[in-house]
């Protein structure tokens, strides 16, 4: 048995190393390697696009928590516009103007202040309605839960 194992080891040592397939004419090994890396990059990019950093939340339309989430954050993580864009769209001005208003609030005009106040009043009404619904849900009659019956 020991002789057979030694013969197998010697046979493995005697075999020539596997060679790489021959490259087509006109392509050097460096260009072929770069092309292979480029293909691997494409594959990795496609795989990364399929991965989701933040899985979408289920949206239960009549659910109180769903309504609260939509009032507090009206966009998903992929649709987040950023503070300056959000305020510029809300006030109807450019982003640079909003940046100026953030640094120098005294420059905010009456029309923009009026738009912001109307937006806040609208949101306040929606929050008040939601708060009433949450209180009604809290005070609803509940079924009493029975402990698990372990009897015969």
Q: Topology, please?
A:
Blueprint: H1 2-14, H2 29-50, H3 64-72, H4 83-91, H5 95-103, H6 110-138
How large a portion of the residues is in β-strands, by DSSP E? under 5%
Rg (C-alpha, Å):
33 Å
* Average pLDDT score: 78
Total beta-strand segments? 0
Query: Percent helix among the residues?
Result: 55-70%
Low-confidence stretches: none
Based on Cα principal axes, name the global outline: elongated
What does this structure look like?
The protein has 152 residues and is mainly alpha-helical. The protein has a domain at 64-138. 60% of the residues lie in helices and 0% in strands. The chain has 6 helices and no strands. α4 crosses α5. The longest helix is centred in the C-terminal third of the chain and has 29 residues, at 110-138. It starts with a helix and ends in a 14-residue tail after the last helix. The model has no long low-confidence stretch (mean pLDDT 78).
Features:
60% helix
Briefly, what is this?
With 152 residues, the chain is an all-alpha fold.
């Amino acid at each position: 048995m020991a002789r057979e194992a030694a013969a197998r080891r010697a046979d493995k040592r005697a075999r020539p190393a596997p060679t790489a397939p021959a490259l087509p004419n006109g392509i050097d090994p460096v260009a072929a390697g770069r092309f292979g890396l480029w293909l691997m990059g494409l594959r990795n990019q496609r795989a990364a696009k399929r991965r989701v950093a933040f899985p979408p939340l289920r949206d239960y339309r009549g659910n109180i928590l769903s309504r609260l989430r939509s009032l507090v954050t009206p966009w998903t993580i992929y649709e987040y516009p950023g503070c300056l864009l959000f305020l510029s769209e809300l006030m109807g001005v450019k982003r640079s103007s909003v940046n100026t208003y953030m640094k120098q609030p005294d420059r905010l005009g009456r029309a923009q202040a009026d738009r912001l106040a109307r937006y806040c009043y609208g949101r306040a009404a929606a929050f008040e309605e939601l708060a009433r619904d949450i209180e009604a849900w809290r005070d609803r009659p509940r079924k009493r839960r029975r402990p698990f019956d372990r009897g015969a």
